[in-house]
Design a protein that fits this description.
two-stranded antiparallel sheet; mainly alpha; disordered C terminus; 217 residues
Length: 217
């Protein structure tokens, strides 16, 4: 029995302490509520007074909003802003033009100098005409130099001229001769004339040797 009495007294003391704390908290909160109500009443009175003064000045269109509506309008503005940003992010970006349309054919990117003008002579025609005009054996480098000087608007390569000359030789439109390690090209008519001139020079030399008297001792 002494133990149970001690336990009851402890519970009673604890409960009394909790009740005292509860009463103290209630009094403090009630005091705070009373102070807040007084502040709210003052603010409402001030709002009514300011509204009346504003109406008296005739500016009724810009009347101050009632308490509580300002916070709601601010929240509404923020919500509208978030909605607009979300909508802007969902709008798909404009599609760019296809890559194939932006690509230009490689053939069109080649220099214009490599293509002959419409109606102009081909390189084969130029080489054949140069051989016929020169009338004497010419190397591929000499022909390339002469064609470049005569046609500065065209890009004439030595290797292309040499291939063209070999094609002319294969078709019988030019002749090839070799002197030591050098190769020379002539037109068929030019080669014949050059050979005839060489033979004439040889005959004239023989005749001159035959006419010259032999000196006697």
């Amino acid at each position: 029995m002494p133990d149970s009495t001690t336990l009851q007294s402890q519970y009673a003391a604890q409960i009394q302490s909790d009740l005292d704390s509860n009463v103290t908290d209630r009094e403090q909160i009630a005091a705070q509520i009373t102070a807040l109500q007084e502040q709210l009443s003052v603010l409402e009175n001030n709002h009514a007074l300011l509204t009346t003064m504003q109406q008296a000045l005739g500016d009724t269109d810009t009347a101050a909003p009632a308490p509580g509506k300002t916070a709601k309008s601010t929240k509404g503005a923020k919500a509208a802003k978030k909605t607009a940003e979300a909508s802007a992010q969902r709008v798909p970006q404009a599609r760019t033009a296809p890559k194939s349309a932006a690509r230009t054919p490689k053939k069109q990117a080649q220099p214009a100098a490599r293509t002959r003008a419409t109606g102009g002579p081909t390189l084969r025609e130029l080489v054949a005409a140069h051989l016929a005009k020169s009338g004497e054996p010419r190397s591929a480098a000499e022909i390339t130099e002469g064609l470049t000087a005569a046609h500065p608007d065209r890009n004439i390569a030595n290797t292309v001229v040499r291939n063209t000359l070999e094609n002319l030789v294969a078709k019988g439109q030019a002749q090839r001769t070799r002197q030591n390690r050098s190769v020379f090209y002539t037109s068929p008519d030019g080669a014949t004339a050059h050979a005839s001139a060489g033979a004439a020079d040889t005959e004239a030399k023989k005749e001159a040797d035959a006419v010259t008297p032999v000196a006697t001792a």
